[in-house]
């Protein structure tokens, strides 16, 4: 037994990445997730509309982003649908109306609590002109069902799992079996190999996504109110990023164990910091920046926006652009890594003879 | 190594150096390659055979020097493993290779059946490559490397771990390719196989310590060889190795006609004519012994 223990320690010492993961990662995760693990909502983005908009003074938790005397309920709904605000107060001739975006579950709960009522139709603490109790209406997820917000996000998690964890094994498996070297001398361009690697996973992930959504809609009654093509475009971009990440991880890993470690390190923060579980606004500012470099953060915005609020592509330009940027960076890095493996002796020759010389490089 | 003697097509390595970090894996190696000929790279473990073949095939860039090779599409390469996918069948492995080289389907089918038939693998065409025996897998690797009819075929240890019957099949495939005008380069640990080559390069610790036809390498062997039943004592013991159930003893000072200088006794054992295996062993041994002699001299130099 002693011999085994000594051998394991020697192997562990030489596998620096695993050692670092075992020692540094738990501390890092504790700090990061300690800041992230919060359901407390301190600021509720709010807009106020209607002729008496200037006189509305909601509780301090409601951060009023805009007041528009000229607009009414339709404008307020558009603000919520486009994700500009989570709560809209609309003053009318009768009772004021408070609209709450139910697709932002924790924010909605916080808004209801702040309004002094936990059920739609009542509200008390908002000081409205004349002291009238507002009528509270929850949009997009009136019953505030967790499944409504989790399933669009879980669709992203499925894509992350396939895109990063499964794909990360692809290249490293080639290296372990010695076939990567074979690919290097075959007339395949790095981008052909890259695309050839990701397209099958892409197809499987697309089927998985369709199944998850079908189950979500059919069994859990999650609405799909928006445009399917917009959702599909978001999923396409998101898959592009995650598959690229998977290939990148695979190309920097020496073996399948290392690839899995890195994939887990990339997947875990996506689940915990992307707004899937904890609202982004509740994540500590020191850690929140990580959320904004995670592709799942933007896919969550797109999937919840399209499925629950029928958000149009125009108001979703930011997550679309950022996903595209992330995709471009990740895929470029992955192809560059591929190039170093697949064109080690320079670009493929097209003439009758190729020369590889140190001087010519 | 000053002149660049490459083959008729201009293919080969000239003054190639490869560094892995600080370690020099190849040091000024020159190795010409010719069509219709088989060239062999031999040497001990860590000699740099695989590195040289990787450079010749284009799988690796050189640190210094020049490698000339045909266009990528004209190169077939068998890496140190079989280079095949264990989770694809024999037929699927070859179909992938055919598609990558854009061989028309009908022609690819014809070639695949022909090669499998010649290698005795036709009956296992639907078996996963991972479930083939080592010899079968190597044959599959060689077939895959030559399926697109390359002009240069680079095979790294094609027969290592292969049973004699499969070795014969492999050599038949290689000989056939050579006869068709393919330039074949193999790295091998089996010196009896290297004797089939038109040109042999002997590597040791990344340096070329011998090159030429097998006959030239044998003829260039210094000293004389004797066969003995027992390992000799003393310094001669350091110059001996096991061979054919006995011992070979190399005497560097003994000329082919007998011991150099008058009155010196010939070594014990009966004189034997060296073959390539002996000549390569002597070349490596001579370098090793020279290294041992240099070390004490260097130490003395420091002390002085």
Q: Percentage of helical residues of chain B?
A: 25-40%
| Beta-strand percent range of chain A | 5-15%
End-to-end Cα distance of chain A: 53 Å
Q: Which oligomeric form is depicted?
A: heterodimer
Order of helices and strands of chain A: HHEEHEEHEHHHHHHHHHE
- The overall pLDDT average of chain A reads 84
Number of strands of chain B: 15
Biggest β-sheet strands, sense, barrel of chain B: 6 strands, mixed
Structural class based on helices, strands and sheet pairing of chain A: alpha/beta
CATH architecture of the largest domain in chain B: 3-Layer(aba) Sandwich
Strand content of chain B: 25-35%
Biggest interface pair, residues each? A-B, 26 and 36 residues
Spans of chain A of at least 5 consecutive residues whose pLDDT stays below 50 are 118-124, 347-352
Number of strands of chain A: 6
Give the full name of the CATH homologous superfamily of the largest domain in chain B: P-loop containing nucleotide triphosphate hydrolases
Tally of discrete structural domains of chain A: 2
């Amino acid at each position: 037994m002693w011999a085994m223990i000594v051998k394991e320690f020697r192997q562990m010492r030489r596998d620096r990445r695993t050692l670092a993961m075992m020692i540094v990662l738990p501390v890092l995760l504790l700090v990061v997730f300690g800041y992230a693990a919060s359901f407390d909502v301190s600021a509720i983005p709010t807009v106020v509309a209607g002729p008496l908009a200037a006189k509305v003074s909601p509780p301090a938790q409601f951060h009023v982003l805009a007041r528009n005397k000229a607009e009414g309920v339709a404008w307020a709904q558009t603000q919520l649908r486009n994700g500009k605000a989570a709560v809209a107060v609309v003053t009318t001739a009768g009772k004021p109306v408070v609209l709450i975006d139910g697709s932002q579950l924790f924010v909605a709960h916080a808004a209801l609590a702040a309004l002094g009522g936990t059920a739609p139709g009542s509200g008390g603490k908002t000081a409205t002109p004349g002291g009238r109790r507002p009528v509270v209406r929850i949009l997009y997820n009136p019953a505030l069902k967790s499944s409504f917000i989790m399933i669009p996000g879980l669709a992203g998690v499925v894509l992350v799992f396939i895109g990063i964890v499964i794909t990360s094994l692809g290249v490293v498996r080639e290296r372990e079996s010695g076939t990567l070297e074979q690919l290097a001398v075959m007339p395949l361009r790095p981008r052909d190999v890259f695309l050839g690697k990701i397209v099958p996973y892409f197809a499987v992930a697309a089927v998985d996504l369709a199944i998850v959504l079908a189950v979500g809609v059919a069994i859990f009654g999650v609405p799909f109110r928006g445009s399917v093509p917009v959702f599909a475009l978001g999923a396409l971009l998101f898959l592009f990023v995650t598959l690229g990440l998977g290939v990148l991880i695979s190309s920097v890993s020496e073996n399948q164990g290392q690839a899995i470690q890195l994939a887990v390190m990339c997947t875990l923060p996506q689940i915990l910091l992307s707004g899937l579980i904890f609202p982004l606004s509740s994540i500590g500012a020191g850690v929140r920046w990580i959320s904004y470099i995670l592709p799942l953060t933007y896919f969550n915005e797109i999937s919840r926006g399209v499925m629950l609020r029928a958000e149009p592509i125009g108001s979703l330009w930011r997550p679309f652009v950022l996903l595209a940027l992330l995709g471009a960076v990740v895929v470029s890095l992955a192809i560059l890594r591929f190039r170093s493996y697949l064109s080690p002796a320079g670009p493929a020759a097209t003439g009758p003879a190729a020369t590889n010389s140190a001087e010519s490089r | 190594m000053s002149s660049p003697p490459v083959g008729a097509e201009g293919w080969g390595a000239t003054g190639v150096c490869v560094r892995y970090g600080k370690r020099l894996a190849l040091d000024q190696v020159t190795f010409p390659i010719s069509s219709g000929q088989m060239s062999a790279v031999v040497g001990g473990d860590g000699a740099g055979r695989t590195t040289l073949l990787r450079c010749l095939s284009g799988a690796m860039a050189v640190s210094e020097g020049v490698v000339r090779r045909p266009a990528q599409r004209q190169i077939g390469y068998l890496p140190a493993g079989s280079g095949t996918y264990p989770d694809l069948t024999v037929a699927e492995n070859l179909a992938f290779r055919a598609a990558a080289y854009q061989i028309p389907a009908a022609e690819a089918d014809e070639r695949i059946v022909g090669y499998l038939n010649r290698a005795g693998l036709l009956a296992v065409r639907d078996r996963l490559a991972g479930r083939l025996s080592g010899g079968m897998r190597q044959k599959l690797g060689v077939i895959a490397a030559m399926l697109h009819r390359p002009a240069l075929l680079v095979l790294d240890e094609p027969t290592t771990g292969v049973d004699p019957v499969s070795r014969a099949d492999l050599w038949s495939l290689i000989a056939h390719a050579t006869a068709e005008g393919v330039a074949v380069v193999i790295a091998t640990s089996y010196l009896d196989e290297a004797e089939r080559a038109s040109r042999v390069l002997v590597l040791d610790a990344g340096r070329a310590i011998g090159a030429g036809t097998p006959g030239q390498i044998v003829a260039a062997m210094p000293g004389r060889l004797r066969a003995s039943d027992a390992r000799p004592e003393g310094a001669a013991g350091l110059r001996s190795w096991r061979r054919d159930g006995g011992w070979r003893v190399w005497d560097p000072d003994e000329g082919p006609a007998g011991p150099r200088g008058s009155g010196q006794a010939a070594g014990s054992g009966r004189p034997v004519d060296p073959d390539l295996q002996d000549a390569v062993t002597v070349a490596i041994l001579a370098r090793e012994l020279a290294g041992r002699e240099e070390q004490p001299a260097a130490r003395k130099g420091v002390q002085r």
